[in-house]
Amino acid sequence: xxxxxxxxxxxxxxxxxxxxxxxxxxxxxxxxxxxxxxxxxxxxxxxxxxxxxxxxxxxxxxxxxxxxxxxxxxxxxxxxxxxxxxxxxxxxxxxxxxxxxxxxxxxxxxxxxxxxxxxxxxxxxxxxxxxxxxxxxxxxxxxxxxxxxxxxxxxxxxxxxxxxxxxxxxxxxxxxxxxxxxxxxxxxxxxxxxxxxxxxxxxxxxxxxxxxxxxxxxxxxxxxxxxxxxxxxxxxxxxxxxxxxxxxxxxxxxxxxxxxxxxxxxxxxxxxxxxxxxxxxxxxxxxxxxxxxxxxxxxxxxxxxxxxxxxxxxxxxxxxxxxxxxxxxxxxxxxxxxxxxxxxxxxxxxxxxxxxxxxxxxxxxxxx
Length: 368
Ligand code: SF4
Ligand code: SF4
Ligand code: SF4
Ligand code: F3S
Description:
Layout: E1 3-6, E2 11-14, E3 25-31, H1 40-49, E4 62-66, H2 75-83, E5 147-151, H3 160-164, E6 170-172, E7 179-181, H4 191-195, E8 201-204, E9 209-212, H5 217-220, H6 227-230, E10 237-242, H7 253-260, E11 265-266, E12 277-280, H8 287-294, H9 298-306, H10 312-318, E13 330-334, E14 337-341, E15 347-352
Parallel strand pairs: 3-12
Antiparallel strand pairs: 1-2, 3-10, 4-5, 6-7, 8-9, 11-12, 13-14, 14-15
């Protein structure tokens, strides 16, 4: 098996295919501190792409309440248990990836969820941790935190779904890194469903072939951000293109937030897929939990995020979340404005970096 370099785990690892990075890599950043679990993104994706027969249970975009919520049930704890609940404590991961932990004769360590695992889209959502008696407002003896985790396919650099398919039905587009599944060639083997640790491939029982998030590629090809991004009520999402740390550009907001300020982290980097959705970790959650979920550097990320206004450039990049429907490739600061540009440096949007503040008089004679 060839060795490929995975920058998220800081080392080489075996992967069944030669590494070939796309010209541009589709990527997304979610600010978990701003998500309100309104599920507008979920519904936007559903009504756009998965309202057909056999797609009823599919949620290409979902938002789950951590630590209890899952879709499908227990997707992350199940694979973490199989892998040995490995976490990244430093920039180089010393445990096994899912490719390195694969059983003999298989490409990747995985499991097939049961139909019941898809019965509840977010079981335990916003529940308190114990039974509630009449008249009791809230009792949370064991757990005093929760947060919302939006999820889509990560359009991984080293996709397990792609490598697990015996027919090589799944492919990664060289022009933008979007991972697609050719439904005409699919024979319904479901090795992709078993192999994807994020459980973002769904089998359609009516057509007998699998389906997955398509990264809204018709929109991407027209420089428009994805449906789940542009409909986000909380403006918690930024979608664009990400370079590797070595090729990062100072004026790309995705590169700056992820590689420059380092405040957005991948989901379970220890799996070894180099996923391309990134999360600004929730500031109120215990660090050991966050380290397991988002890898090394979460405490530093939170500290920088808390002081985002000290770094004008970071503040500027953060203000571009939800500012336009189009994909921002470059940004600059002019006076009190952050400006977003398209790939050819045509201006797309201007956002004020500070708003005027009006302080009311302490005394108002009208109320005498
Ligand atoms: Fe494939 Fe899953 Fe990665 Fe998406 S998240 S590219 S479905 S392995
Ligand atoms: Fe759905 Fe498009 Fe978002 Fe994928 S990128 S989850 S297809 S809306
Ligand atoms: Fe969260 Fe935005 Fe989705 Fe609402 S639309 S659940 S704020 S990601
Ligand atoms: Fe391959 Fe998955 Fe279809 S394993 S054949 S893409 S169901």
